[in-house]
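Format is sequence with structure; example below:
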Amino acid sequence: MFEINILLVEDEHKIANTLKKGLEENGYYVEIAYDGLIGQRLFMAHSYHMVILDINLPVINGIDLCRFIRNTNGHIPIIMLTALNAIDDKLKGFDSGADDYLIKPFEFKELLVRIRALLKRSMNQNMPVGNLLRIADLEMNLDSKEVKRSGQLISLTAKELQLLEYFVRNKNKVLSRADIAVNVWDIDFDTHTNVIDVYVNYLRKKIDKDFPVKLIHTQVGLGYILKEKEL
């Protein structure tokens, strides 16, 4: 079994050292950066399988660092750790390219579950269902993370890509908000948040707005469905 290298960017030394110890006890190799600039330099100098970073970092904040990492590497899993739990803060994290988001304080076991899920998703490239998904004139390449509609390249964030993949894999099926919450965000659906509706809206603007045939449809009281035409 090869070694999994994780870059941990956390300015609170006690938290960083505790996480490093726990992760290494679970078989991971961890390098720590105590500010965003050091994190950026380490990321550019070494090869990692995952990045875990705090939002409130000195020198370069976590949002800007996450955006830099995502622009440099479109595939590497990124988990954000933060004490900020407002929906707007979560949206900023996901918009900058984060794959997952943990609110401090959290159980270490929960972090391990998130890490394993993201690593499994990122490393399992030989998926039996194939790496090219299509519906109508939309094409999604799971290897290159490229999405095209009518041959036009569409730029999506990491979370938008996950949401679209879930839609395409379940085309012509009504997906409830609870289904989407569990399968895309790995969380139980919170009826007080509109984060799913917000992201579906983001996706619609990118893959539907400028095209005559709309693919994402709302099923009132039920959820959403991705379909090429009326069934």
Remarks:
- The first helix runs from residue 13 to 25.
- Confidence is low (pLDDT under 50) at residues 125-129.
- The chain is about 40% helix and 20% strand.
